[in-house]
Amino acid sequence: MSKAIRIHAVGGPEVMKWEQVPTPQPGPAEALIRHEAVGLNYIDVYFRTGLYKTQLPATLGMEGAGVVLAVGEEVQDLRPGERVAYAGGPLGAYATERVIGADRLVKLPESIDCKTAAAMMLAGMTAQYLLHRTFKVQAGQNILVHAAAGGVGLIICQWASHIGANVIGVVSTPEKAALAAANGAKHTIVGYSGLAAEVKRITGGAMVAAVYDSVGRDTFNASLDCLAPLGMMVSYGNASGPVPPFDIGLLAAKGSLFLTRPNFATYTATAADLRAASASLFNAVTSGIVKIQVNQTFPLEHAAAAHEALEARKTTGSTVLLP
């Protein structure tokens, strides 16, 4: 038998239950892994609250790292005992053991431990495609990063700074501003009241080429106002709630702006895309371009407390759940 955090109804953190479940067995193209660490991400909150739909009862979690225990008969490139990591689903990471498609697993370099891997796979590969595919950041460009002290935000700040971009980080507290500044943000802004005016001051009126916005409803309009003509609005999260419908004519009126809502599953849909993104991330981490900061850990059985801290904006960097 295994243990898992499951939900039988959507709602607050209290709907998460620590339960005993049968240990699954791998199918022909699957692998059974024992988790050493599980990543906490805001998308887990979306599934718990019902913003994103899933069949109930459900085991939450989109990211983990551990050791292969067994593989199906069709699996050729994985062996029991190898260390692996994954991100992006299907749901089921909040468990001591789980089965997952072998083509969704990547082998870990010796220099990356499982706790670091669980903290970085979803956030790191998200940052990778946001910076290198969704909007290809170039040296000298101004970019604006919301939640700059969060898991994805800190990685974007470091990676974009290495590329040579001028990073403006938006955070909720002075302490988080200091953290973002220490990780590559050339300028920081606390709060988003008067955001466009502050960005105009910082950039001397040039504004920014791209905004990376994971906050959603509360920052969307202010983010659009920060863009230079032909700028790109990258809305990749809804921490404050989904963006309501709006007149797309606003994009024309504000300077022929571009708007995209990227999705992790699309950017890593093929095994080739997944391996390319993870290889790029592993290279950035092992070379020191990106440093992964695991600033909070919780026992897996206390995942509800981790959700409470995440939603209250009491976390920075990455949070890991330990089975």
From TrEMBL:
<dbReference type="InterPro" id="IPR002364">
    <property type="entry name" value="Quin_OxRdtase/zeta-crystal_CS"/>
</dbReference>
<dbReference type="InterPro" id="IPR047618">
    <property type="entry name" value="QOR-like"/>
</dbReference>
<dbReference type="InterPro" id="IPR011032">
    <property type="entry name" value="GroES-like_sf"/>
</dbReference>
<dbReference type="Pfam" id="PF00107">
    <property type="entry name" value="ADH_zinc_N"/>
</dbReference>
<keyword id="KW-0560">Oxidoreductase</keyword>
<dbReference type="Pfam" id="PF08240">
    <property type="entry name" value="ADH_N"/>
</dbReference>
<dbReference type="InterPro" id="IPR013154">
    <property type="entry name" value="ADH-like_N"/>
</dbReference>
<protein>
    <submittedName>
        <fullName>Quinone oxidoreductase</fullName>
    </submittedName>
</protein>
<dbReference type="InterPro" id="IPR020843">
    <property type="entry name" value="ER"/>
</dbReference>
<keyword id="KW-0521">NADP</keyword>
<feature type="domain" description="Enoyl reductase (ER)">
    <location>
        <begin position="11"/>
        <end position="321"/>
    </location>
</feature>
<dbReference type="InterPro" id="IPR036291">
    <property type="entry name" value="NAD(P)-bd_dom_sf"/>
</dbReference>
<dbReference type="InterPro" id="IPR013149">
    <property type="entry name" value="ADH-like_C"/>
</dbReference>
